Amino acid sequence: MKRHTLIVAVLAVAAAIAAGVSVTLVVAPDAPAARPAAATASATPAREQAARQFLLIVKPGEDMRARCVRAETMFEEEKSPAAFDEVKDCLRAYAAVSHSVAGGLRSAAWPAEAARDVERLAAVSSARASALQRASRVRTFD
Q1: CA–CA gap between residue 123 and residue 142 (Å, rounded)
Q2: What is the pLDDT of residues 52-88, one digit of tens each?
Q3: Cα angle 59, 65, 66; round to 5
Q4: If we measure between CA atoms, which residue out of 38, 28, 36, 37 comes closest to residue 6?
Q5: Global pTM?
Q6: DSSP-based three-state secondary structure for 110
């Protein structure tokens, strides 16, 4: 999934939760199967609270994505070993943040109508973490 498409999907789900609209997301066939959402909290948050919670959980991922876009832009301009190393460092950090975001999404309580979609986003975040980790191990940029 392209990064801009994912951002739009994340924002759409957050807006839908806040507005009480039901949203169905489609996960690519090669993405890992979704697991049932974890029920760790005793109370299900209201839609508005869930929307705020969602945005707080995914914000570190969005911030890291922006950092990686800047690193990639710098690399495209410089084509230097230092810029290449910065991109790889950023990809490793983004992988760790994506893994954390997936865990945060799975461990939080969600309104019943949003839980399945949030789990699908968590699955996408987990898949992204794996792909970013693999990409960070690239050794050459020629």
Answers
A1: 32
A2: 999 999 999 999 999 999 999 999 999 999 999 999 9
A3: 95
A4: 28
A5: 0.67
A6: coil
